[in-house]
Write a structure and sequence with these properties.
The protein has four helices and eight strands, in the order βαββββαββααβ. By secondary structure, the chain is an alpha+beta fold. Strands 1, 2, 3, 4, 5, 6, 7 and 8 form an eight-stranded antiparallel β-sheet that branches. A hairpin with a 2-residue loop joins strand 2 and strand 3.
Length: 155
Amino acid sequence: MRRSDKEIKDKETIKLILKEAQVCRIALCDDNKPYIVPMSFGFADNNLYLHSATEGLKIDIIHKNNNICFEVDIKNELVKSESACNWGMKYYSIVGFGKAQFIENYDEKKNALDIIMQKYTENDNESFEYSKTALNKTTVIKVEVTKLTGKKSGY
């Protein structure tokens, strides 16, 4: 990272940012063309979990190229100044990289969906019920994270 003064190295702080963030943007690449999409997500044991419909552009791209970059951010705030060159943003952000794989096993898929649901309901150990029909209509993606970088500005 160019600005080491903005780097977040503390793993617990990185986990807190991932817990607080509401949206994860995943970046994919298809034949040298970038594609980015915002998604709901869960994070546990150094894995990012995503869910999706069974068809669509991101699914097609991941089948061809499973390299993923992702970004989350929190506490975004515009910082105004009298000089245009001194405007800025306050934020905490995480950028990560990893390899995506599709989860096919019923129990693993349910566990991954529970991780996502627990994030948004804030019930860390709750288990949820999913019909077989719903699970069959849902694609669950596990991203094995290979690198995480945290950054803060203005805090």
